[in-house]
Amino acid sequence: MMASSFRDCKAWSAGGLPLSTSSNEACKLYDAILTQFVKWRNDETLGGFEGCISALQQADPNFVMGHVISTGLELVSTTSSTRLNERLASAVRRTVELASSQDISPREKLHVKAMELFSRGNFPKACDVWEDILVDHPTDMLALKFAHDAYFYMGTQTQMRDSVARVLPHWKPHMPLFSYLKGLYSFGLLETRLYDQAEKVAMEGLALTPDDAWAVHSVAHVYEMKAEVDKGLKFMESREKDWQISDVLASHNYWHWALYFIEKGQYEAALQIYDSQVFRRCKATGSMLDTVDACSMLCRLEMEGVCVKDRWRELLQVTQPHNDDHVTLFNDMHFLMASLGAKESGTSQRLLEGLQELAKEPGDNQQHQLAGTIGVPMCQAIMEYDQGNYNRTVELLYPLRYRVVDIGGSDAQRDIFNQLLIHATMKSENKHHQKLGRCLLVERDAMRPSSPLTERLMQRALALHN
Question: What is the CATH number of domain 179-245?
Fold first, then answer.
């Protein structure tokens, strides 16, 4: 039986979020899954996500919201495409059928609709539906979290911030998961460049819940964006004990730690984190967040001139099974880095062609709609850079630089494309490109005045073009 701390039928109703099931056990398991989702943690005492999901299906196999949360979690993890994965596609259909055969609440119906829209890649419409739920039910954490994730995949930073701002006044300190709103809100503030406020709000969250890994992650971003490297290193180290128990986010937090080392030019320390944490975890879990982080890190190190040896080949084993998924453009570009790094030109070509194909008839899949105008040219730019065609890289990437945000991810994650463009301009034979590179470095320096990485790149540009 589930611990008494989780909400039963009566508790959910009292909170204004009744669930259509008569099973108290199912209600508690739903709460247990939601709690792990918000904490980014497989709680072994509960049997983790998988244990709770299978127990939930046994407690009430026809519980619609049970299907919404379990199938929804698999969808937002972006590890699998309903285009290719028949089991996942049928789980979505099953949820829709259950919902239409039962007398469930309007809120639950909307949850089913949003999940179905998301499964078809219609992220904007799915978010509209989650926001509709939140207008009437501002304390529906599942709607809030799913919307937060989808906004992240679309790179819609203001929406991600405002979605949380709108519901904040309705939450009271006694409500379950209250403190975690601080980290969610902080992340939206940070992605809209409100760094001081973001840090303050995250610290308020950490004062309430020191092991909130998402709030830690938000602070890590602030120090990254301001290039306050030593502050970042100190902060991550001092709180490692707290955040590393959140196994779903731990690798990503280690990645942030490693970025500080790359920024400082301490490549061995960064590689050590890559080997002991980032790659080890991504190989064990197959998590997309961990996988794209691994790709990004090796690519950044290579741009800095570090030899990463056979690490690309090992990483390709993790990315290759997802080459045809095309769930998000952000994932695709990182898989491409891995296949290029491993010198698998066939795999790289196939990824690009698959994307070109989907761009022809995208339907209402938001990522495929962007594939033609942003996804394909960015992939081509990465390939041209890999082949040493730096002129062409700049021609492809420079016109897109203010649209890169549309591929999703965070400013910190997308910075790899800023770096790629700068490296391409410096290596280009074209004098105009070389000048452009210096302009980009001046601009970068204005935003992050104390960045050792920018300083190194400036020195290199001077040495190359004098």
Answer: 1.25.40
